[in-house]
Give the backbone structure.
Amino acid sequence: MGGSLKFKKSLLILSVLFLASAGYPNTPVVTIGSDAGASVIIQKRRITLVRSGNIARQFPDRRRAVVIYPVIGGPRNSAVLRKVRALLDFKNIFDTSLAEYRSDAWLTEFDYKVNYNKNFILDITFTQSGMGAYPDTHTKHFAINLRSGELIQASDAFTSLDALARLVNQKLQAEIEQVKKENPGERESIEPTLNDLRIDASGLNDLSVNARGVTFIYDAGFPHVIQALEPVGRYFFNFTELKPYIRPDGPLGVFIR
């Protein structure tokens, strides 16, 4: 009798879980971390933008564009969760709304990648690709402190910012020298532009976090005609390298304990 009751309870629990999951059209990314609020729930949403009218007639091969973006949830409807949702509101990503993408022929694909979602840190990268006079791709990174719902600033995470900036700048300068070496025919024309590039403490705020370390992101902003000579601008440091600079009480302190 007792075994039968347990079996019925198990069936009931499975049925409830099945019904709950059936209400979602896409499978959510799992919540990582046991502490409430230590991570968020991310539901993947896919939309196909269908263009019509003059755009469809002028650009028949661009009638459609695929947009995949995250819908953020959490264990509770907190003020922090509302801040995170506001930061990742669709138009805030590339300053363009779905309606604007639909009314223009440029966008072909919009997607995202979750780099880290644990220990009260959400790091996410968005990518948009499109075609104007030439194909182009843009990325945007968000490293969010899930304790505050705000973007992680270098001053929140690190001490000795000037010293840290010198380390990051060393990697930029090494990349610049490599660009010069690989493009001897362009060196004379591009060298003045490359020599003006440097990273100081104010350039450390654009960063991406994963389980291994931090990537500092530098965008030189070269025009398309010389973009092939632009430094990639992605400078990774593992947490062992960063340990002397990480604030123990900051959002990255968990990685040096």
About this structure: The beta strands are 41-50, 64-73, 107-118, 121-131, 135-145, 150-151, 207-209, 213-217, 234-238. The first strand starts at residue 41 and ends at 50. The CA atoms of residues 178 and 231 lie 9 Å apart.
